[in-house]
What does this fold into?
Amino acid sequence: MKAFMTILIFAVIYVPALLLFAVTPYITRKTESFGVSIPEEIYYIPEVKKIRSQYKNRVLLSGGIIAVISLILDFISSAKSTVLFLSIGLFVQLAVMFVFYIKGHRKMKVLKKSNNWTANKLQRVVVDTDFRKKRVLVSHWWFLLYVLIILATVGIGLLMYDKMPDKIPMNYNFNGEVIKWVNKSYKVLIFAPAMQTFIMFLMMFIYWVIGKAKQQVDAAHPERSIEQNRIFRYRWSAFIVFMGLVLMGVFGFTQLTIIGVITNVWVITLVPFGFTGAIIITAIILSFKTGQGGSRISIARTKSGEAINRDDDKYWKLGIFYYNPDDPALFVEKRFGVGWTNNFARPMSWAMIIGFIIILVLLFVGSMYLTK
It folds into this structure.
């Protein structure tokens, strides 16, 4: 069983993550390459294409090597080591990917400086003052489903409490063997709804970030860019709601295993992977379909303007970390990949980051207490 579970984990988690890492330069905006702002037409020149191709090939090659090494080490070790080797493999791959990214970033900076791509071009910042009035996000009423799922999880636990076994299996290894048992108690029933509550507030926060994040409009194609960005935010807000519901389902399923409704080891082991796979596959498809900021969404072409986006490379450290004390925005679009990042010059951003870390620590400590 361990061999099957190991291959399943790598197939569901590692391989999709590796593919997403490799194609990141292709789903980023065409006006940004490896964290460097460029005119859109530069995206298609041979030198820039070569940098993207080298990055992709290096990530795939290194990822394949890391995967093979991790699998070999896992197969010759104990059943408890699969998650450890997967985690180490992903961490190493992220580190290697960052090295390849930095190489691409430096090459782009040299190319930009030597070719002076922005010379004699009008630089402009475009803002749609009516953007927030448009249908940017899915309805917030979807979060009522979260509340109903939490209440159902609590209710099922209380109704079935008398039928629960005296000893409850909490953790399994990859051979399907129980490695942790806990005594029957009401506090064990709190674990799943507590995690669901955390997920609900986390998804609501991300939903809020998507709505409040700073606009980024392509000065060369403002009308098209505005509509692409609206659709981009709408689709990703829908994904956040979907992801949250799936994760709520995972812990609802956990509650059923705790109270003894579901006891089959294969079902207990495989169902969470099904939930995880659904989230990962949906995220990858959405990334490909939308691109960063909606850049891959097909919109009827509009008249191109004479201007290009304002060059604000000086505010992007390594092309990844945004630090602009003069910008009141807390969240801006990433320059490499899909999604948003913080303006690290704003104290509120750091307060949110520290607060999130504290919540995670408290959640970890609380879960250890509830399941001991």
About this structure: The CA atoms of residues 212 and 274 lie 32 Å apart. The beta strands are 32-33, 36-37, 123-124, 167-172, 178-183, 308-309, 316-317, 321-322, 331-333, 340-342. The chain has two domains: 1-115, 138-297. The first strand starts at residue 32 and ends at 33.
